[in-house]
Amino acid sequence: MPVDPMIVNPTLGPFRKMLAEVKGKGLSGPDVDQMAAVLGRMETLAQQMGDVTAYMGQLTQENSFQQFSDAYSRVLAGAARAAAKDMSDEELLAQTLGAYEKALQTHRSGQAGDAAAHTIPTLERILALGRSGVSYPVFLRQVEEQGLMRALSGSAGATREALEKDLAFAKESWFPVRVEQAERILAAYDQLVAEAPFGQPDPLSLELARKRIEWELEPLHRRWTAVVDRWSHVLELLVDWLDAHTSFAPGDERWCPPDGNPAKAEHNIRRTKECAPGDVGYRLAILGEYFQLGFDDIFTHETFRTEYTARRVHWSDARLALIRETFPHCVLGGVAPAALVARAEQLHPHGDVRPDAGKAPPWGTPLATPFG
Description:
4 domains, about 70% helix
């Protein structure tokens, strides 16, 4: 039983139309013959096989779709070459400039999107060159020599506008190492532009410069991230340890399970009281061994000052001061002093967090810290 026509017709319909198209144009040759042979094979299999999955699998196994498409592409390319042979250099130049003029109009209208706007000056230069009276071969050579095709494609992201946007994004994100990286890549681009004969940097040279800069700065970025991650966790642990002693702890989502079971909440609170001091000590030992930072050093370190200024340290100044006072008491078997617990209860929940948390100031704002 043949494969259902409701499956076959939508599948083979486009291929039938393509074959009819090339024959309608009077095209012939081995590639057209191959198109017909491949389509004929697909039609035959549709009549011989009743299972749709098996049919599609057989077409895939024989690579039928790709064979047909490749032959169709060769037919069209051959037709284009044949048509070009019959055109004079003047006609070819006019056809090429017409295509660039159409592209320029599309870009100016914004239909190509904002990302294509940087190509407008390049298109204008290409059209000016083509209309300067040069022959078609000279036009093609000068377009290549002046790097206009390279600028048009924006190879390897080689546009100053794109690199400036990378730098602006790094500054908005307040990551110093990434800012330095973006600045160095932009400087490398400018240097390559200055050295290029026609003001277009070689894409490979720019990509190599980019990779070298990224490779040189990646250890610094990883170190920065590692330090921030570790002291951030220490601060969180100290907050949790102190809050575990408060009256609101049994109903807090940090300890209260979804089912609201009081026994489970009490178990979680007890675990925090007992385990957090050891966890804090362990993490501080890592900070000391690998980054030479003690607890008090955290608050004057460049990473903390930067994160605080960027408003990614979301704790309020009052809570940060309380964290520092909590640390000496967060020891194995220790109990939080009543005065500190009372302050934690007064701050919770709205006084715990900075009102401007997450709203980074402009890049270049002097680094701040709530402590001297």
